[in-house]
Amino acid sequence: MVSRDTLWKGIIEDLAEEMLNFFFPQYIDNIDFTRGFEFLDKELEQILPASETQLRRADKLLKGWLKSGEEHWFLIHVEIQGYADPNFPKRMFQSGYRIQDRYEQPLTALAIYTDKNRKYHKSKYKQSFMGTEMTYRFNTFILADHTPEELALSDNIFAVVLEAAWSGLSRSLKDETLLNMQLATVRRLLSRGYHIKKIRRVLNFIRFYVRFENKESFPKFEIELDQITQNRKAMGIEEAILHEVEQRGIEKGMEKGMEKGMEKGMEKGMEKGIKQGIEGGIRLSKRKVIANGVENGLSEALLATLTELTLEEVKAVIKSLEEDLPNS
To answer: Mean pLDDT lowest for which of 225-239, 247-261, 311-325?
Structure first.
């Protein structure tokens, strides 16, 4: 299962411009987006002690430029902890002064709180002793203070990400309610006319972010998701191959299974044949998924996630595909 830390880090990088537009609208005209951004994850790991990097797995450090030509640093801290952390403001302060001490560049910091414990949703760190006082104030966004209905009013695609993440605030949501909420978010995503590449990124965020209580709910969510997307324009290779796994594989497998079961002429044999046929059909489809993915430049790690195979199994399939190629 893809961790939410990984999902946050990835979506911030994929939608950096939209994220800044959402959280810093008053400063957006000063930023030179034509120069893009540099993502300094490795540098951030070097700045923070090893013990602290485990607490900051969803931190992002972005390097950007102002239109005036000056460099500008952005520390984006995504707080996804599900427990109270009274030391969080101090950690924000520590990371801030370490970054400024190393790079000597202006810095802005943002904490996105994705839990419901408002008691610990602080926006500053303050220290005073014997007449000396120091205050470090940082930007915050508290997801619990914004309803899905409010987020849905925004045209910014990053609001769709936040809307999808809102479902993680409550563990009391029934699977059916959670499923319907996420499908409604997907429908809005597809109806807004966003760039296909960005739609693909957000769809994957939604797909892996959702957590159902019952294991049976996730396949249902996947099927519903495919039904929504298959009637739209192509979303990209990830959606196409996932649809192929669930539709073509199952359909072919059922067909073969029914044929085998009918030949046995017994209900038990038919059920066993259908099961074997489905499994065989899905295996064949996953092989084709990997072939299509390799052809379109997908990484082995992504193919493993999409096909629910291990990395070693994916590599074995790729090797088998290469062996099947005719000698040139």
So the answer is: 247-261
